[in-house]
Amino acid sequence: MKVEMALYKALVASNVPEQHATAVIDAMEKEMTSVLATKADLTALRTELKADITTVHTELKADIATLRADLKTEISEVRNALTTDGEKRLKELANLENKLTLRMILLLSAFGSLLFGALKYLN
Description:
Blueprint: H1 2-13, H2 18-34, H3 39-122
């Protein structure tokens, strides 16, 4: 309030009519209260921002923890699926190996029979 009074006195001393001096002071006061921030305004803003930052930080930590848990679950599911699929493929390969071995034995037996039959026929 000291600034306004000093400005008013300076304006009146400079031969500015009292009405105009009062209008200047009123306009300045209105501008200062609506546009300029006080230390209290800045302190309140700082407190609000700190609270908002803390809230966002907490939410982010919770979101990251949830995502981490979801990712671990998905990785575990993929690992289990791959393991199951791999075991299934190994069983199929073993089955194919057995079939191939059996066919080879049958072919060798047939070839042996043909060979012995041809030898008998030639002698």
